[in-house]
Amino acid sequence: MNRTNILSRLTVTLSCMLLLSACGIFRQAPQKTDGPPPELSKPVKEEPKKPVDEKPAARAPFNVPAFAREVKKDAYNVVLFAPLYLDSVFATSLEIPGRTMPRYVLPGLEFYEGAQLALDSLSHLGIKLNVQVFDSKSRQNDPATLIRNRRLDNADLIIGSVSSPEIKALSDFARQKEINFVSATFPNDGGINNNPFFLITNSTLRSHVEAMHDYVQKGFANKNILILRRNTPFENGIYGNIKAAYDRMNYDKKSRIREVIWNEGTTDAQLSQYLLADRPNVIIVTALDEAGAKSILRKLAPQRAAYPMHIFGMPTWDVMKFKEPDFEGITLYYSSPYYNDKSDYYSKYLADAFRHKYKSRPSDMAFKGFEVTYYFVKALAQDGVYFNKDLNKPGNRVFTTFNYQPVYLQENGETPDYFENKNIYIIQKGDSADFKMNAIN
User: Fold this and answer.
1) Parallel, antiparallel, or unpaired for β 76-82 and 157-160?
2) What's residue 47's pLDDT?
3) Range with the lowest mean pLDDT among 11-20, 239-248, 283-292, 415-424?
4) CATH 3.40.50.2300, the chain: domain bounds
5) Fold held by 3-203+342-423
6) Does pLDDT of 31 surpass 60?
7) Which of 79, 129, 200, 284 is spaced 20 to 30 Å from 26 by Cα?
8) Mean pLDDT, range 66-78, rounded to an integer
9) Is residue 192 within 8 Å of 418, Cβ to Cβ?
10) Whole-model pTM?
11) 3-state SS class at 30
12) 228 has which bridge partners?
């Protein structure tokens, strides 16, 4: 991004960002924008909904009493967290050092910009909101301090692009206050349990490898399945999750999985002992880091002429580039909870809005900020504070098909430890674009 684009975006956002650092943004009335996507341009006018007293249902969904209550309001209080690092950027003055925005600021800024465009679109639907936006990396207004000072007590919904330790503080607060907290981008449960008000959008690694195992078992009629891992506790844990998925799988055509432990000294002859020439060799590589992934691929590359191979990598492979000549002709896949070919109305709206406001194209973080904010605030407006009875309404889909399911960490758990998006796309890497392989919309 060049200097002109950075300065243009700062002109638009700087005044808001300064308010963020001090006390958050309070959205009291809809702001004029270029408008939402075409299908949102003519909202149906409805009479304002009066607050409804909590009505107990016959049976609490998921054994959570709060989910049985109907709590609707004329206007909802939404809290949004993003890592903006304003204390660092403006440590000495309001001028940006070198007149260039630090790269570490951009993901949080773009998430916020996408979320703000979603809120603008929702305001065109007549949804009334009071929105507070906070910098999760602020030294004086970090989540723990805000909670201690009771600044979040009126929240009806919290959406956060946060990681440790902020995610734990917000989750504990959400459980105590019985309000939903949506973790928008962190691919981990952060050690959280016993909190049915905690929702994970960016699926955990365990869900990724379970979905990948399911795909390779059902996607290939006759196959040789290998799990290639290094001899580390972490990668052994990944293999353990795959083995558990295999043991649970009720599929009469499932093939056995074989574990292969490799290191830099592994020879071609040793690898070839596990490969078969008469069927696809479906190889799941557990390396999350780029150096490790490329190391094993270089070991496998000499085998591709004699043995047909389909290589499945971890979700971190989506941003890796495998352009080296060594990897030519290797069929690679990875998993992701997100897929967007950017051909729909919402994507075009977001792209046009970014071009008009910021003279740039929206990043993946901007798309994520827009999607998760639009999805959950719309659910809030439809069903009230406790929208958990129906988290997966097809009509609320933006870019991604979400599939939030309860997760029980204990075998006989009565209430969910959290809810997690279990929809995983299997994506094949291409030379110029990546392609969705499974049939999820």
Assistant:
1) parallel
2) 52
3) 11-20
4) 3-203+342-423, 205-336
5) Rossmann fold (3.40.50)
6) no
7) 200
8) 97
9) yes
10) 0.85
11) coil
12) 260, 285
pLDDT in tens, 349-382: 999 999 998 889 999 999 999 999 999 999 999 9
CATH of the domain spanning 205-336, picked from 3.40.50.720, 3.40.50.300, 3.40.50.2300, 3.40.50.1460: 3.40.50.2300
**Which residue is listed with tokens 């007549």?**
126
Beta-carbon contacts of residue 94 (< 8 Å; ≥ 6 apart) = 14, 18
Which stretch of DSSP H or E encloses residue 257?
A: strand 257-261
Q: How far apart are CA 405 and CA 212, in angstroms?
A: 18
132-162: b (≥16 Cβ within 10 Å) or e: bbbbbbbeebbbeebbeeebbeebbbbbbbb
The fraction of the chain above a pLDDT of 70, given in percent, is 83
Per-residue three-class SS string for 158-224: EEECCCCCHHHHHHHHHHHHCCEEEECCCCCCCCCCCCCCEEECCCCHHHHHHHHHHHHHHHCCCCE
Radius of gyration for the chain, computed over Cα atoms and rounded to the nearest angstrom: 24
